[in-house]
Design brief:
The complex is a heterodimer. By secondary structure, chain A is mostly helical. Chain A has nine helices and no strands. Classes of the chains: A mainly alpha, B mainly alpha.
């Protein structure tokens, strides 16, 4: 069991952190996800991949927590976190933060599908399985996440240099 | 290429985990459309940043924490809720139970006090006897044979009571007063109804279509009495148990409610 946790801890914690945007919450959710998965290990179908099943548990726990958060009033820290920051002088870390901010503004389902595809490298069939939805829906969620992410980043004026470079291509 | 086509083609390439910059058609449109170029480059830059970043790592000891939690006895949600409720409401539940017990004991004791014992019942006159006696007292003085005078306001207290300063029990309990008021109201209502009925029946012979002689004034009430008797015959099987229960309840009430003391003047 300990080996199982060690093997998948980074993937589970990474998904939780990207979904929740808070390290402490991500730690708690990752731990809870592993506990739940190990307790209901008898329900896992060995013909299926273990990783998508484990990530589906983590994603569902994160979405539940996010739904609870949305019912609470937003704190001051979160508003400050969404302040406009231009990347010109701050560098690479600011860019990463901008991308994370843009991700946090996506709908929970879009964000989860996008992260499972681009960060966890799952196929659409695995995403559909993990999110308990048809493959077409999973694909639509990823496409919408891409479009919204691009729109948010463009509106905020980040990544302009790359844009100019692309036009020069 | 239109912008929608550009978006669809870009998604197709990314779905296949390909490289959009290598697609000539896409680049051609990007050179012409500034918005598509900006969005595409922003997205590709974001994807590059995400993939270049190593996966974040949790604090050390995650596996130990998971295993420790696994070995703890599992607490279900309903058990948590029940535990909280038990802690919070245990005092209130105990208080309510104690109140219920006290109330039950008090009710049982009160019932024992109110239930007439055999000796008490034998000492008390029967309800019908009491009714007879009170009727006699209201109508005629038996000993003198003279009709009794109507009670005056000053007669509210019996002579004996005036001497001793003790008020009669009839004023202490409101139930006999209520019964008297109800009886008076009923009698007034009955008298009014009878008068209205007689007045209405006076006009009835002129309205009733009859083959022979018009109905006399006495025939109308007779018919009504017959109809009432007939109706009573129909209702009697139903009403009899109700009447029995009501009279039984009234008898019990008469035993419980203290009767006014006997008039010493009689």
């Amino acid at each position: 069991m300990a080996e199982l946790v060690e093997q998948f801890r980074d993937q589970v914690f990474g998904l939780c952190l990207r979904m929740l945007g808070n390290r402490q919450d991500a730690e708690d959710m990752a731990q809870e996800s592993f506990v739940r998965a190990l307790r209901s290990l008898h329900r896992w179908d060995p013909r299926r991949e273990f990783k998508p099943w484990l990530l589906s548990i983590a994603g569902n726990r994160c979405r539940t927590l996010l739904a609870k958060r949305q019912r609470r009033p937003r704190g001051v820290g979160e508003v400050e976190h969404l302040a406009d920051r231009r990347p010109s002088a701050e560098g690479y870390n600011i860019l990463v933060e901008e991308v994370e901010q843009a991700l946090s503004r996506l709908r929970n389902e879009y964000r989860q599908a996008f992260l499972l595809f681009h960060e966890q490298q799952l196929s659409y069939a695995e995403i559909a399985d993990a999110m308990n939805c048809p493959v077409g829906t999973a694909k639509t969620w990823v496409h919408r996440a891409r479009l919204e992410l691009a729109q948010i980043l463009t509106e905020r004026g980040v990544l302009e240099e790359k844009s100019n470079a692309m036009r020069r291509v | 290429m239109q912008c929608e086509e550009f978006e669809g083609r870009l998604n197709r390439i990314l779905d296949e985990r390909g490289v959009p910059e290598a697609d000539e058609a896409l680049m051609e449109h990007a050179r012409k459309c500034q918005l598509c170029a900006r969005r595409c480059s922003a997205l590709l830059r974001a994807l590059t940043l995400l993939s270049a970043q190593p996966l974040p790592q949790p604090r050390t000891g995650l596996a130990d924490r998971v295993l420790a939690e696994l070995h703890q006895p599992r607490v279900f949600a309903w058990q948590r809720v029940w535990g909280q409720a038990r802690r919070v409401h245990v005092g209130a539940l105990l208080g309510a139970a104690a109140a219920l017990v006290v109330a039950a004991v008090w009710l049982i004791a009160a019932g024992d006090r109110q239930r007439p014992t055999a000796s008490r019942v034998s000492q008390q006159p029967h309800a019908s006897q009491r009714t007879m006696r009170s009727t006699d007292a209201a109508g005629q003085n038996r000993s003198s044979g003279q009709p009794r005078q109507a009670p005056q306001p000053d007669d509210a207290q019996a002579p004996g009571a005036a001497e001793t300063g003790v008020e009669p029990a009839v004023d202490a309990s409101p139930l006999p007063q209520l019964a008297r008021q109800a009886t008076d109201t009923y009698l007034h209502l009955a008298a009014d109804t009878r008068q209205s009925l007689q007045t209405a029946l006076l006009a009835l012979p002129n309205l009733t279509p009859s083959a022979g002689e018009p109905m006399t004034h006495t025939q109308g009430p007779d018919l009504l009495v017959q109809a009432g008797t007939l109706a009573t015959g129909w209702v009697k099987p139903v009403a009899a148990p109700i009447q029995r229960s009501a009279s039984q309840a009234l008898r019990s009430l008469m035993l419980v409610v203290p009767m006014p003391p006997e008039d010493p003047a009689q």
